[in-house]
Amino acid sequence: MEFSQEVCNATGKELVIGMTTNGYLFTEEIINSLLNYHISGIQITLDGCREDHNKVRNAGKGRDSYQVILDNMKMLLKHKIPVSLRINYTAKNIRKALDIKHDLVDLTDEMRGLLNVNLQRVWQDKDDPEANTGSEISNINSEMDELIYGFKESGINGLYFFNDRVESSCYADKANEALINYNGDVFKCTARDFTTENRY
After folding, report:
1. How far apart are CA 130 and CA 77, in angstroms?
2. How many whole angstroms separate alpha carbon 72 and alpha carbon 78?
């Protein structure tokens, strides 16, 4: 970011930074360093409610990955950095995902104004025949309505969800955007396996 800012300053361009992260390693020091940049928003992901998330993202030694991430998200919001909380849901975990709203009750109105909740179905779940029968899809739609209503009822108004429409395509699939993996591979979407065969 420091290098990018120097290049932008030298060429008269504005640097606007957005990022997607699991949110686990944020500290006060890191967040304070972010305040030197124009941060448009940080997307943080949860894999369902506490129980489901901690099964998927086991931090080891009995650590509560879910709570660490939520605490870090709240720290970002306190520093007035916009956050998009992406809740990855499946046909199996969508019902319990509403439990997350109980962990957001301590947000101030100002923090709520900087938060949006983004419900996104796990792409592997879309490929599971058992999760895509007529009755399962009907269940998911019903649970989604309840989830949206439940979050809005608790004062979370910045709420949206991705479906399969073109308008909701991955942000990296835009003309001037790309996703660069840690090893230098380039992809045009975040919602895929980062394999050599899938790289751009």
Report:
1. 38
2. 10
C-alpha–C-alpha distance, residues 198 and 104, integer Å = 37
Measure the CA–CA gap between 61 and 157, rounded to whole angstroms.
36
Query: What gap in Å lies between CA 70 and CA 68, rounded to an integer?
Result: 6
CA distance 131 to 134: 9
Strand partners, 180: 186
What burial class does residue 29 get, using C-beta atoms within 10 Å of its C-beta: 0-12 exposed, 13-18 middle, 19+ buried? exposed
How far is residue 148 from each of residues 23, 63, 160, 161, measured CA to CA in Å? 23, 29, 8, 9
Among residues 166, 161, 171, 165, the alpha carbon closest in space to that of 191 is found at 171
Q: How far apart are CA 63 and CA 59, in angstroms?
A: 6
Angle made by CA atoms 167, 191, 165, in degrees to the nearest 5 = 20
Give the span between the Cα atoms of 99 and 89, in whole angstroms: 13
> Using one digit for the tens of pLDDT, what is the confidence trace for 51-74?
999 988 887 777 899 999 999 999
| CA-wise closest residue to 180 among 7, 5, 39, 4 | 4
Distances (CA, A) of 8 to 3, 11, 18, 172: 9, 5, 16, 21
Question: Residue 78 is encoded by which pair of tokens?
Answer: 């306190």
Give pLDDT tens digits for 126-147: 666 665 666 666 777 788 888 8
